[in-house]
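User: Design a sequence. Structure:
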């Protein structure tokens, strides 16, 4: 690998990187670095010299990585790597079903290639995968190590709990997996799965082997040490060929678990919403001009639905994060973007009235959405009324949040749906009379002016919706 000098700047440890004491990720002068101890450095250099790893890099299945030469003297590591920066860090409970499934398949493909070349991975967590747009990429380069004969894949349990079990829950039971993963950073425990898949459900694809037999084996070896279990497996003839057979079986199972969510209210929203064709055209032109005027950078599309405006933003932006509450809508968007080979739009599942909080150790191991998502342009189209009326969030707080997600000097592109708009009337009909006396256009414009400078405004031809472009902090 090509070596480069390390810039002189302060190190900042990545809060989510501490579980493997042999290596840790840091940030320094805008770069993503990984420090390695002596053993991990030896594993890395053997990995860097291997053909299979070069192939993974060439196929963009693993994040770009290079070792820094000479090793900086001001850090306590035997070697330091520099990784490419992923455009936006997301968490598995923000993915759609198709995204989680593709992340699992990538994980297994990376492991298969590693085992074939005499390597393995230390873990099997869904958090080892991130995204370049709609393309998954394996990021945990520090997980690779030389395979040892007779030892099983150390990451099997993690793979089951954070990837396979959530897929089984949704494919076989029709339950969205996201709340399970958001509730527990380590995923779904085998005991919980056994309660969900009792009786006849145990015969569904993958359940008997990877839930019940796996759980029974864990119970049987609960008092045994890891070294004892490994010795038992070696004496029983466990081999690399058996490990590869397990990976092939898991890959076949995950491919069979393709799940297509049914139709929902939001999946047909573009047809059923109140927009006329002139409204739609005026809105598209306004968004295109606003993003083009701001220039390259990150765009955050809040309430993205089918991605119509995210695609427009992607004409000008470096990357777009498209957030939508409905998992079925996000899954349809993801599959379309994947087929298009789109590398700039990342679709995510999230309720904006209940965005992803910080989680894990000390609440910072997995950063909150609001700590990750600041953007040069924030699109809040047909969103404010759903939060302010539908979810009873005070209008000033809605705008505070939108402004907080926009970098200083960046653009907030926001749509105000007037109280007499058909959609607003529908939401207001379900609320007590007089509950929202401040939901008025003049109040909205006053709140906008307090948070930035309005540089663009257009009335949609229907006359019941207004679009604004606001330079936040300007």
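Assistant: Done.
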């Amino acid at each position: 690998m090509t070596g480069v000098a390390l810039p002189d700047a302060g190190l900042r440890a990545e809060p989510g990187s501490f579980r493997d004491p042999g290596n840790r990720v840091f940030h320094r002068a805008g770069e993503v670095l990984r420090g390695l101890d002596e053993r991990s450095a030896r594993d890395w250099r053997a990995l860097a010299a291997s053909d299979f790893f070069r192939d993974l890099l060439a196929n963009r299945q693993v994040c770009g990585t290079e070792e820094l030469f000479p090793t900086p003297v001001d850090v306590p590591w035997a070697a330091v790597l520099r990784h490419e920066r992923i455009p936006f860090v997301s968490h598995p409970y923000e993915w759609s079903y198709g995204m989680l499934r593709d992340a699992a398949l990538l994980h297994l493909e990376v492991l298969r290639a590693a085992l074939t070349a005499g390597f393995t991975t230390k873990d099997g967590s869904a958090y080892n995968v991130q995204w370049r747009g709609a393309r998954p990429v394996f990021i945990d380069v520090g997980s690779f190590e030389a395979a040892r004969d007779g030892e099983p894949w150390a990451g099997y349990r993690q793979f089951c709990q954070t990837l396979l079990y959530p897929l089984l829950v949704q494919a076989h039971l029709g339950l969205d997996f996201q709340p399970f993963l958001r509730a527990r950073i380590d995923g779904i425990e085998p005991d919980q799965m056994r309660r969900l898949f009792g009786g006849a459900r145990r015969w569904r694809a993958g359940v008997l082997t990877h839930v019940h037999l796996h759980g029974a084996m864990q119970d049987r070896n609960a008092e045994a040490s890891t070294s004892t279990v490994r010795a038992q497996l070696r004496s029983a003839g466990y081999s690399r060929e058996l490990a590869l057979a397990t990976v092939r079986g898991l890959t076949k199972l995950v491919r069979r678990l393709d799940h297509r969510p049914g139709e929902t209210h939001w999946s047909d929203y573009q047809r059923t919403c109140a927009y006329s064709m002139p409204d739609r055209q005026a809105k598209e032109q306004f968004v295109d001009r606003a993003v083009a005027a701001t220039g390259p950078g990150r765009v955050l599309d809040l309430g993205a639905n089918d991605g119509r405006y995210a695609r427009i933003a992607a004409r000008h932006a470096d990357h777009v994060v498209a957030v939508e509450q409905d998992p079925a809508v996000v899954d349809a968007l993801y599959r379309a973007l994947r087929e298009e080979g789109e590398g700039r739009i990342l679709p995510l599942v999230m309720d904006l009235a209940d965005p992803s909080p910080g989680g894990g150790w000390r609440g910072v191991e997995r950063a909150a959405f609001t700590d990750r998502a600041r953007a040069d342009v924030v699109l809040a189209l047909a969103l404010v009324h759903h939060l302010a009326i539908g979810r009873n969030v005070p209008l000033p707080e809605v705008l505070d949040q939108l402004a907080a997600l926009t970098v200083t000097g960046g653009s907030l592109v926001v749509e105000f749906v007037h109280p007499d708009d058909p959609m607003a009337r529908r939401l207001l009909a379900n609320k007590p009379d007089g509950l929202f006396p401040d939901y008025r256009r003049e109040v909205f414009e006053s709140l906008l002016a307090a948070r930035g400078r309005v540089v663009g405004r257009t009335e949609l031809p229907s006359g019941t919706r207004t679009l604004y472009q606001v330079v936040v902090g300007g």
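The radius of gyration is 25 Å. The first helix runs from residue 38 to 48.
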